[in-house]
Amino acid sequence: MLLKNCRLIPELSGNIKFVDSDIEIVDGRIKGVYESGTRDGFFEQVVDMGGRTVLPGFIDLHVHLGLSAGSVLEDNIRTVGKQVLDAMRYAQSSLKAGFTTLRDAGAAYGAATSLRNEINSGRILGPNILACGKILTPTETGNDYFHGLYSEFNGRDEAIAFAREEFKAGADYIKVMGSGAFMNPGGEPGAAIALDEELKALVEIASMKNSYVAVHAHGPSAVRQAIRCKVRTIEHGSMVDEAGIEELKAEGSFLVPTVIGLFTWDEATRNNPREWEKIEPMLSAIERSIKNAYKAGLKLGFGTDMGVPDCLHGENGKEFIIRHDLLGMSPLDILLQATRYSAEIAMIDNKVGTIEAGKAADLVVVDGNPLKDIRCVKDAITCIYKDGKKVEL
Fold this sequence. Notes:
Elements: E1 2-7, E2 20-26, E3 29-35, E4 46-48, E5 53-56, E6 58-63, H1 72-76, H2 80-95, E7 99-104, H3 111-121, E8 128-131, E9 135-138, E10 150-153, H4 156-168, E11 174-177, H5 196-208, E12 213-217, H6 220-228, E13 233-236, H7 242-250, E14 254-256, H8 259-263, H9 267-270, H10 273-279, H11 282-295, H12 318-325, H13 331-345, E15 363-366, H14 376-379, E16 381-386, E17 389-391
Parallel strand pairs: 1-4, 6-7, 7-8, 9-10, 11-12, 12-13, 13-14
Antiparallel strand pairs: 1-2, 2-3, 5-15, 15-16, 16-17
């Protein structure tokens, strides 16, 4: 297949020296990228993009396919079968929004790993999924609120045992709680809750599997602890301070902000004084911290936290807009975060993240120039290709 008359962005396409391009696809992978009109030969199918912008498939490094964006308590009482079927719908909604790769940041009952396996088998259509299985956490206030989502540990040995169980069950990476959480009743988002020895043990086990650890960390002490313990990805980082930013520059950890997930709360939460008094004061801190991280030149990942209250799966594209409008990020930098950078951070850049020969033909076609108007990546998608096959929108 040949996609002709594509407008590419060089920084997302192997730094090619031309913009007007043709993309050759064979067996679901990109065979080559050529200057428009220079590729001769017979092609079984030729599709004229008409000068539209073709982007690598988007990557969301932080979603919860086991959560509905509604009531967590109602989510908890769903049957295992319904959780898996719902997860399939949520994943397909995100795919139709251009997100061809999702990293699930914790789901109960193996919902995300089971879904990943079915998609990989070709039996159902869906995005690429990286799954951590259950979230590992020290025993902590509010954990019971998320029935079936957590494996609680106390100490290094228990942390190791649970990490091995998750890898045995098919986890792609390990997710651990390093600080309190907004959604946990009684949880303090700024408070660190894990020991260095626990995090270091998890990192060691993950490295033996050629994998890594992602840590939920809001407060500055939890962020710096994760860096110190060689954790690869720091989820949220809502209150990262200047010292943490400087350490992120020097070390091998990466920040994955989830801005829209922290600024979008349902009416029930906003009208709950106990919850809102914990959340509302943090919003200005989040804005300030992530702005500072961006200005410092950090390579940021792209996450949304879709599945938490009022963050509906399929609306992942709102993250593009809030990063631009609220945080002042340039369209090119946001696109890099949602493609090339996130692929590098998740250690999948040999497969996805850019439009280059040898990589999966996961593509998003938009009507417009996202470098001039970032909204077109949310509002003007004309077609999506997953492994070279057109996705029906």
